[in-house]
Amino acid sequence: MIVGIGVDVVDVTRFAATLERTPALAARLFTEAERGLAVHSLAARFAAKEAVAKALGAPPGLRHLDAEVCVGEHGRPFLRVSGRVAETAGAMGVRRWHLSLTHDGGVAIAYVIAEG
User: Fold this and answer.
1) Residue 104, annotated as binding a ligand
2) What pLDDT, on a 0 to 100 scale, did the predictor assign at position 77?
3) Residue 8 annotated as lining a ligand binding site
4) Residue ranges covered by each domain of the chain
5) pLDDT of amino acid 94
6) Which residues are involved in binding Mg(2+) (predicted)?
7) What dihedral angle (degrees, nearest 10) is formed by the CA atoms of 10, 13, 14, 19?
8) Strand partners, 67
C-alpha cells in the first residue's frame, strides 16, 4: 500500500550558486558520504530529501541529514533514513522506500514512494 508520494525538481545552476554563496549549507543538507559528489548529483539528492518530506506530509522537525541517498548494486539509488524521518515514517507504517533520480537539461528531479 502506498503511504505517501513525493516529487521535487531542482535547478542545478541555481543550486550550485546557492552552495557557492553559502558553503556551510552543504554540511546541513548532506551527510559526509554525500558531500564529495558533483553538483548535479547533490541537486538530485537534495530533491530526494525534499521529496521524502513531501511523501511524509512535511511534518515539523525533519532534517535533511536524516535522509541519505545511497548507491546500491548496479548504481541503483536507495534511501537510508534515521532520526525524525525514520520516526515519522515508522509511525505512518512506512516499511519500504522507492526512489528514482534524474538530472538532465539543467534540472534534477527526484521521485519518492513511501510504501507500507
Assistant:
1) no
2) 97
3) yes
4) 2-115
5) 98
6) 8, 50
7) 100
8) 81
Write out residues in the chain with pLDDT < 50, as ranges: none
2-115 CATH fold:
Ribosomal Protein L22; Chain A (3.90.470)
What pTM value is reported for the model? 0.96
pLDDT of residue 5: 98
Rounded Cα distance, 66 and 75, in Å: 21
Annotate the chain with three-state secondary structure: CEEEEEEEEEEHHHHHHHHHHCCCHHHHHCCHHHHCCCHHHHHHHHHHHHHHHHHCCCCCCCCHHHEEEEECHHHCEEEEECHHHHHHHHHHCCCEEEEEEEEECCEEEEEEEEEC
pLDDT tens across 86-114, in order?
Answer: 999 999 999 999 999 999 999 999 999 99
Query: What is the widest separation between alpha-carbon atoms in the chain?
Result: 42
